[in-house]
């Protein structure tokens, strides 16, 4: 599908004054990273039933192959000095329009490699897990095809060397996510969840595409290098507009305020999908976008502030929602929202935060994917039960799941020496750097978020694995097969040690330096040891509160009515109602009033799949009534209005 | 009047005809004439084969003539016809799209004649005459010469050097389409109604065109676009004629592309006409009409655009918004595609309003991309049947992805192209027109365009959901196995949609090289 | 077209005459039209004035020859008449194009070419006629 030819010409215009160089050696194979999973998707989706037998295995193998190539490129990159690590692989001339030449090319640099490794490694593990998890699903082949499509698109997204090619991957992951949320489409709610995700993403895509065209109009190019070079000479207002539009895209893809509402519903998809797409990789694309566009955001403090604000609001918002949900996957989804809020916050802080945003992203990829797989394992053992009030004391029945989940829990809490500690603590520190009100507000938000996180994640952990049994009568919890536990163990290992390897050694900071630059030294407004102690104290407090409520005390099987805040949080803090009031109702009214002009082919009820499939209801007489005389009158009116308007204006 | 009187007394000068330049049109009209003769003298049994053969051979020969005509560019027939880059590009496009359309029209499944067309157009629907005609094995093979005449008019439309030629081309392309719209084999009353509506409203819009042309003649003293352009620079004090003239001519042309508020015919006619004819209208008529608008606006009256471009802006915005929003509530797939075509016309207008060479090339690329996708889409619509007649109600398409994965897959891909998802031609095309608009001071239009396409995308994806994620309503809906003809049309259309999305460079290059009008 | 002939007239004559010359062709046309209207009105008027007027019921019937009209004037006409009207319009109107051709047929360099062109023109019409004839459209059923 993806016709790739290696062009020897290095016609890429590079602005970064020798920062990037044409790909050589093993890097010139980078296109295989995308093509292999894409090939898998093509074979599985177009191959029909013939591929039923070997398809899932093939998809998994191709994904691992992609990881292998990524690893080889990574090793080769390690062997070069830091200033030689940014390479551009030019593929072919994609869109030449007049003076505007755009090559389809890949940017292979430390940032994109970090993502390539995360996506292919975690992705491949989850494919292995799915081999067991989806074993009895009749549509397995399609599932693996979609997952491969996702991996290919995600790799294209992070490897693109221009905003336009990134947008291709961006749409690709959106499509794959959409297809996978609605994968079990026999349940109507899942299809509507898929629709919701799609609509939220269209809002973001709108921002992205306008931003890209604005870049094209302003800089005359849409490659990262070209745009970065042009930022210095650009008008502040334009930069802010571009920054805000990119943020809109990032917010929709990463489920950030105010476009976060789709992520909870997206849990309708199979659990491996939630782990891979809606926790570890796709939803972090917004963070990637902000970090990749750091030159633009550094040029526009206004947009940067918006990034921080969106991050801060979402991290609190997600944490509050997470406290009230009883559906294990929805708690994890709220937690994902909140954690990505941390990353956004860090990415918006400027050079002090980029490294930690990416660092936390990698750690989060491991521990959150691990916990999702753990949740899947629990569901697997409990007949697809997701209500935590029906779990309890599963630690004995599912030892591996309990242990691996526990490591993920400690990691997200930020307990040293687990991975999350090294990145989250640094983000909180970075948020406290600055002058005036900002460090207090943003740092405070990060700190409070950490406390709430400790509470709701402990609540999840205790309600599921500790306390007394609240199982339904027919439940016989059992540990999952090895193909499911091995990926969980691997991810738990990462959650335990990745931070320790990359953080204290400063490896991640020096690795990302060619892309993000050296992060400046800054002193938080509260001394670091004090801050760290305060954080740990708050976390301990959150855990203790959860212990009292959900381990020591009896957990009712039916959810209590709860306080006003709990009830609001259960309803996602009324985000859906707000969306409906602000966006959907005016939209419906607009549609209805416009439809007033066309009744001929329209059923009385507007919109909605149910209405669509339902019978034809009584038709209302309207202007598109099929009478030629009214059509002619419309035309005449149009002519009169146009001529009249021009005449008046003149 | 003086000129015409004195013309009798002065020496008559013969105009030079550059036959190389007009050969494509001659070939198509010649093939149409042969088609008429075949219709008259060939025995009934061989007519179908002969007609399809003549039409296809004529179209391919005309396409080759277009390629040859690259060396014969220039103004010919005393300025009535101008063969230049855009004209040749669009003529080539029309011919290529026409080949696909004719293939789709010729589909006869297992019947004796083209399946989409009634056995006898003149017989009243449901009358004894009709059933007699069906029993006798009558077929409406006239559709092929009619199509060829329409194609001939379409070839002339974007190459017209003066308003009178443009009007003649407009009529030559329209009249056969009026007849073709009324020849559907099923739901014939709807089809005849569509035909009559299209005819009446078409005549109405032609009147506007003529009125506008008359005003412009009064303004500049000539029908020739070049002379009108010169007069805009020199003539003063007659602006009262110029702007209304321009707008009225544009009304006539905008009617053909289905721009709001001159769009009301589109849904009814698209729904009523035989499906392959709808595809032909949606693709080829649009190409030709946009070519004519481009020439009129860029060659003729571009210098006065400050006076009338705002009106065209309003039309473009209305077209995009109304097309996109109204498509949300459609429950008939043909009406949905009709509203989608309205929205697409709005997108193309955005590129046109760039008033730059980039605008020309982006518009030309867009119509190619849209043309291939839309013909294939309508060809697929004609395959989905419920007990013999086309299943056009959307609820009948539910679950098609499970029962007929290949057809549904192709249709889903085309819908994604209409939505402008990357790696389809729709994305490249939208990118081209919107970036042309943004680059030349029409940013608000592009923003509205992106918003409208976001709305429209929802519609297309909803259909995909319906096909893949919804249980089928009944078992009676099935896909008729197509013959090689429809298969070829669909395959080529889908392939072009993919190719123009992945490697659009050669065609974009060609479009941008041929984007220069001869003045 | 009047614009084309304008400049040389303006050079030759003084202001008063320019106005007259520019208007004169229209005056001529207007005169012809008026004369036509006048002749018609005069004829009808003269008849009205001279003829005796003594109506009876019989005289007021549509055809004063004993054939009584059936139905009212807006009855549908057989479509066949429509067809003949069509054919008449096609051929009679197209014949107009033959007149200018007559002025160049004798010219040495245009004659043969124009003959061929006119042959093609009429040939195209004949193809249409042949089609109509073969389809039985000219047969009076």
Explain this structure to me?
The complex is a heterotrimer of chains A (650), B (519) and C (141). Chain A has 650 residues and is mostly helical. Among the domains of chain A are: 22-161; 596-649, no CATH class. Helix content of chain A is 66%, strand content 3%. Chain A is built from 25 helices and 3 strands. A 3-stranded mixed beta sheet of chain A has the order 1-2-3. In chain A, strand 2 and strand 3 form a beta hairpin. In chain A, helix 10 (271-280) runs parallel beside helix 14, helix 15 runs antiparallel to helix 19 (482-502) and helix 16 packs parallel to helix 17. Chain A starts with 20 loop residues before the first strand and ends with a helix. By secondary structure, chain B is an all-alpha fold. Chain B contains 21 helices and 5 strands. Chain B has one domain (17-513). Chain B has helices at residues 2-9, 19-41, 44-69, 85-106, 128-135, 143-156, 163-181, 188-220, 225-234, 239-257, 265-272, 275-300, 305-328, 333-352, 357-381, 400-403, 405-419, 425-439, 443-469, 484-502, 505-513, and strands at 74-76, 81-83, 384-386, 389-390, 477-479. Chain C is an all-alpha fold. Chain C folds into 2 domains: 1-70, no CATH class; 76-141. In chain C, helix 1 packs across helix 2 (15-50). The relative contact order of chain C is 0.04. Chains A and B meet through strand 2, helix 5, helix 6, helix 23 and helix 24 of A and helix 8, helix 10, helix 11, helix 13 and helix 15 of B.
What's the number of structural domains of chain C? 2
Low-pLDDT residue intervals, each spanning 5 or more residues of chain B: 1-9
Q: What is the straight-line distance between the termini of chain B?
A: 27 Å
User: Kindly state the mean pLDDT of chain B as a whole number?
Assistant: 89
How many E strands of chain B?
5
Described by strand count, sense and barrel closure, the largest sheet of chain B is: 3 strands, antiparallel
Order of helices and strands of chain C: HHHHH
pLDDT < 50 stretches of chain C: 1-21
User: What is the overall shape of chain B?
Assistant: globular
Helix content of chain B: over 70%
Broad structural category of chain C: mainly alpha
Q: In percent terms, what proportion of residues of chain B is strand?
A: under 5%
Going by helix content, strand content and strand pairing, the class of chain B is: mainly alpha
Strand order of the largest sheet of chain B: 4-3-5
Described by its quaternary structure, the protein is heterotrimer
Secondary structure tally, helices of chain C:
5
What value does the Rg of chain C take, in angstroms? Answer: 26 Å
Sheet having the most strands of chain C: none
How many domains of chain B? The number is 1
């Amino acid at each position: 599908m993806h016709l790739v030819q290696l062009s020897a010409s290095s016609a890429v215009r590079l602005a970064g004054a020798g920062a990037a160089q044409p790909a050589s050696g093993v890097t010139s194979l980078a296109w295989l990273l995308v093509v292999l999973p894409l090939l898998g998707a093509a074979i599985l989706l177009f191959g029909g039933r013939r591929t039923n037998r070997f398809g899932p295995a093939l998809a998994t193998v191709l994904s691992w192959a992609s990881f292998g190539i990524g690893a080889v490129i990574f090793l080769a990159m390690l062997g070069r000095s830091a200033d030689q690590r940014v390479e551009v692989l030019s593929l072919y001339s994609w869109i030449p329009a007049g003076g505007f030449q755009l090559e389809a090319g890949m940017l292979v640099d430390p940032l994109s490699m970090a993502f390539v490794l995360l996506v292919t490694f975690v992705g491949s593990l989850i494919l292995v897990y799915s081999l067991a998890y989806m074993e009895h699903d009749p549509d397995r082949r399609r599932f693996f095809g979609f997952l491969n499509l996702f991996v290919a698109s995600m790799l294209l997204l992070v490897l693109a060397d221009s905003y336009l090619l990134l947008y291709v991957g961006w749409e690709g992951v959106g499509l794959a996510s959409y297809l996978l949320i609605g994968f079990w489409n026999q349940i109507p709610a899942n299809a509507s969840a898929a629709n919701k995700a799609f609509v939220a993403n269209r809002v973001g895509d709108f921002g992205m595409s306008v931003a890209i065209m604005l870049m094209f109009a302003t800089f005359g190019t849409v490659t990262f290098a070209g745009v970065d070079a042009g930022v210095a000479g650009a008008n502040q207002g334009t930069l802010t507009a571009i920054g805000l539009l990119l943020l809109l895209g990032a917010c929709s893809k990463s489920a950030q305020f105010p476009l976060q509402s789709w992520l909870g519903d997206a849990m309708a998809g199979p659990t491996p999908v939630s782990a891979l797409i809606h926790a570890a990789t796709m939803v972090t694309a917004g963070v990637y976008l902000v970090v990749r566009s750091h030159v633009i955001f550094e040029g526009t403090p206004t947009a940067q502030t918006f990034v921080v604000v969106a991050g801060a609001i979402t991290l609190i918002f997600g944490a509050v929602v997470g406290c009230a949900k009883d559906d294990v996957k929805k708690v994890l989804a709220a937690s994902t929202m909140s954690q990505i809020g941390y990353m956004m916050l860090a990415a918006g802080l400027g050079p002090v935060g980029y490294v930690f945003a990416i660092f936390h992203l990698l750690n989060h990829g491991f521990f959150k994917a691990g916990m999702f797989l753990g949740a899947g394992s629990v569901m697997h053992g409990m007949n697809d039960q997701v209500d935590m009030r029906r779990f309890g004391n599963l630690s004995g029945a599912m030892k591996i799941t309990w242990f691996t989940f526990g490591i993920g829990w400690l990691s997200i809490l930020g307990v040293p020496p687990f991975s999350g500690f090294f990145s989250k603590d640094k983000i909180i520190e970075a948020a406290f750097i600055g002058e005036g009100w900002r460090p207090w507000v943003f740092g405070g938000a990060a700190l409070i978020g950490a406390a709430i996180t400790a509470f709701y994640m402990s609540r999840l952990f205790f309600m599921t694995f500790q306390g007394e049994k609240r199982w339904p009568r027919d439940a016989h919890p059992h540990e999952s097969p090895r193909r499911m536990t091995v990926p969980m163990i691997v991810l738990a290992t990462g959650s335990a040690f990745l931070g320790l390897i990359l953080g204290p050694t400063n490896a991640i900071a020096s690795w990302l330096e060619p892309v993000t630059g050296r992060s400046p030294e800054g002193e938080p407004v509260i001394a670091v040891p004090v801050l760290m102690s305060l954080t740990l104290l708050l976390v301990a407090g959150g855990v203790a509160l959860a212990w009292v409520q959900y381990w020591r005390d009896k957990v009712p099987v039916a959810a209590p009515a709860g306080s006003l805040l709990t009830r609001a949080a259960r309803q996602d803090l009324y985000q859906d109602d707000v969306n409906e009031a602000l966006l959907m109702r005016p939209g419906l009214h607009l549609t209805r009033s416009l439809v007033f002009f066309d009744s001929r082919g329209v059923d009385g009820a507007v919109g909605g799949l149910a209405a669509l499939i339902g019978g034809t209801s009584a038709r209302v007489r309207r202007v598109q009534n099929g009478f030629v005389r009214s059509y002619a009158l419309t035309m005449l009116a149009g002519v009169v209005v146009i001529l009249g308007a021009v005449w008046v204006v003149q | 009047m003086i000129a015409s009187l004195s013309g009798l007394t002065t020496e008559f000068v013969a105009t030079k005809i550059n036959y190389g330049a007009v050969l494509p049109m001659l070939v198509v009209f010649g093939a149409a004439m042969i088609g008429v003769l075949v219709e008259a003298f060939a025995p009934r049994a061989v007519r179908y084969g002969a007609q399809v053969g003549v039409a296809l051979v004529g179209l391919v020969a005309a396409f080759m003539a277009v390629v040859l005509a690259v060396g014969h560019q220039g103004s010919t027939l005393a300025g009535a016809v101008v063969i230049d880059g855009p004209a040749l590009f669009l003529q080539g496009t029309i011919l290529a799209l026409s080949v696909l359309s004719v293939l789709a029209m010729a589909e006869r499944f297992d019947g004796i004649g083209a399946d989409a067309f009634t056995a006898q157009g003149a017989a009243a629907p449901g009358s004894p005459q009709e059933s007699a005609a069906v029993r006798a094995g009558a077929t409406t093979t006239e559709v092929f010469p009619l199509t060829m005449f329409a194609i001939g008019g379409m070839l002339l439309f974007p190459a017209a050097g003066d308003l009178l030629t443009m009007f003649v081309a407009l009529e030559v392309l329209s009249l056969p389409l009026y007849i073709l719209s009324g020849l559907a084999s099923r739901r014939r009353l709807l089809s005849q109604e569509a035909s009559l509506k299209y005819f009446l409203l078409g005549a109405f819009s032609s009147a506007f065109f003529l009125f506008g042309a008359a005003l412009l003649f009064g303004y500049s003293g000539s029908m020739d676009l070049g002379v009108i352009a010169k007069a805009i620079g020199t003539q003063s004090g007659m602006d009262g004629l110029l702007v209304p003239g321009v707008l009225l001519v544009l009304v006539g042309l905008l009617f053909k592309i289905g721009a709001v508020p001159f769009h009301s015919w589109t849904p009814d006619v698209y729904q009523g006409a035989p499906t392959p004819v709808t595809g032909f209208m949606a693709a080829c008529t649009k190409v030709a009409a946009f070519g004519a608008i481009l020439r009129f606006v860029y060659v003729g009256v571009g210098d006065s655009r400050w006076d009338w471009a705002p009106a065209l802006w309003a039309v473009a915005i209305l077209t995009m918004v109304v097309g996109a929003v109204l498509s949300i509530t459609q429950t008939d797939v043909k009406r949905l595609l009709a509203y989608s075509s309205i929205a697409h016309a709005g997108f193309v207008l955005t590129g046109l309003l760039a008033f730059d060479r980039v605008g020309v090339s982006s518009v030309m690329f867009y119509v190619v991309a849209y043309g291939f996708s839309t013909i294939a889409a309508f060809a697929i619509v004609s395959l989905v049947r419920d007990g013999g007649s086309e299943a056009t109600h959307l609820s009948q398409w539910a679950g098609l992805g499970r029962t007929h994965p290949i057809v549904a897959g192709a249709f889903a891909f085309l819908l994604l192209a209409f939505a402008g998802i990357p790696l389809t031609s729709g994305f490249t095309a939208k990118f081209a027109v919107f970036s042309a608009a943004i680059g030349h001071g029409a940013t608000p239009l592009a923003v509205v365009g992106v918003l409208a396409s976001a709305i429209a995308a929802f519609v297309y994806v909803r259909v995909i959901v319906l096909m893949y994620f919804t249980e089928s309503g009944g078992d009676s809906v099935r896909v008729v196995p197509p013959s090689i003809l429809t298969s070829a049309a669909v395959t080529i259309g889908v392939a072009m949609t993919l190719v123009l999305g992945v490697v659009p460079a050669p065609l974009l290059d060609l479009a941008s090289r041929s984007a220069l009008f001869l003045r | 077209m009047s614009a084309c002939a304008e400049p040389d007239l303006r050079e030759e004559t003084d202001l008063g005459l320019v106005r007259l010359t520019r208007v004169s062709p229209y005056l001529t046309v207007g005169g012809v039209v008026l004369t036509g209207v006048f002749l018609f009105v005069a004829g009808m008027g003269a008849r009205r004035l001279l003829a005796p007027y003594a109506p009876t019921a019989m005289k007021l019937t549509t055809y004063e020859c004993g054939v009584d009209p059936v139905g009212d004037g807006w009855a549908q006409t057989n479509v066949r008449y429509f067809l003949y009207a069509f054919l008449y319009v096609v051929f009679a109107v197209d014949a107009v194009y033959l007149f200018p051709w007559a002025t160049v047929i004798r010219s040495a360099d245009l004659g043969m070419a124009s003959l061929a062109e006119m042959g093609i023109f009429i040939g195209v019409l004949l193809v249409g006629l042949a089609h109509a004839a073969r389809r039985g459209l000219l047969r009076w059923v």
